[in-house]
Amino acid sequence: MTDTYELFAIRYASRKANRHEHFIGGDPHDGPMPMDYFVWVAKNAERAVVIDIGFTAESGGKRGRTLDRCPIDSLALVGVDPASVKDVVLTHMHYDHVGNFDKFPVARFHLQEPEMHYAVGRHMRHRQLAKSFEPDDVCGMVRLNFDGRVVYHNGPADILPGIRIVPTGGHSAGLQFVTVKTARGVVVLASDVTHFYENMESYRPFTTAFHVGDMLEAFDTLRAHAAVPALIVPGHDPLVMQRYPAPSPALEGIVVRLDVPPIG
């Protein structure tokens, strides 16, 4: 079976933000620091795997977020039909990573079991933690579990040839990142283990936190899974769109390839 993939990041939304919003304790040099929102696709001749599925217009609107394009319709830009996708990896269940589950009619959803326990458990009575979740998304995943379409993991796992999940917790109780074998090496899709390159590089975690100690330890876990730091791709950093090439001129600013080396 083929275990090497083309790997794409699709930017489906962005928002204006400032530096103090992205680091626990703020930042002494506050200024603009926008945030991008991505879904990722690993594909080869045998399969297409979608990693995270974005937020909906409704859930984003509640939080002042605006879609630039539907993240699931955007899969067509890299030749993927959501109706035929058999495996979706959910790095965690925050609203901007799990919002379009209903658009995948046959997929299995890979999730760390502690993340579901967290999303339906006692901690959701705390608004500071619950605000990152959308109850309808959580209930939707519960229903999919009753349909036999959620694959729960408890720890690292090779879910498909060339694709591995590694839990870290921290930002969310069951957060996991994904490693994907590509022609340039094993790429580490950090998702929200590090929102920006700078969170990891400066050891300053993002402001949405369940366990700060686990967030700090997770930076080291990312590094341990990457042969070189350039193989780590953060979850929300606009620099990703600058550092990697688009598949074609028509997709500039929308899609980049992560299976090729960074530009420059």
The first-level CATH class name: Alpha Beta
Helix and strand pattern: EEEHEHEHHHEEEEEHHEHE
Mean pLDDT: 97
Q: Outline, from the CA principal axes?
A: globular
Helix coverage percent: 10-25%
Q: What is the multimeric organization of the chains shown?
A: single chain
| Percentage beta strand | 15-25%
Write down the CATH topology. Metallo-beta-lactamase, Chain A
- Rg for CA atoms: 17 Å
Can you characterise this structure?
With 264 residues, the protein is of the alpha/beta class. The chain is built from 8 helices and 12 strands. The model has no long low-confidence stretch (mean pLDDT 97).
Features:
264 residues; alpha/beta; Metallo-beta-lactamase, Chain A; 7-stranded mixed beta sheet; 5-stranded mixed beta sheet; 8 helices; 24% strand
Structure summary:
The protein is α/β, with parallel strands linked by helices and 264 residues long. The protein is built from eight helices and twelve strands. It has one domain (6-257): Metallo-beta-lactamase, Chain A, CATH 3.60.15.
Topology:
Layout: E1 6-15, E2 35-43, E3 48-51, H1 57-62, E4 87-89, H2 95-98, E5 108-112, H3 113-120, H4 127-130, H5 135-146, E6 150-153, E7 157-160, E8 163-167, E9 176-182, E10 185-191, H6 197-202, H7 212-224, E11 232-234, H8 239-243, E12 255-257
Parallel strand pairs: 3-4, 4-5, 5-6, 10-11
Antiparallel strand pairs: 1-2, 1-12, 2-3, 7-8, 8-9, 9-10
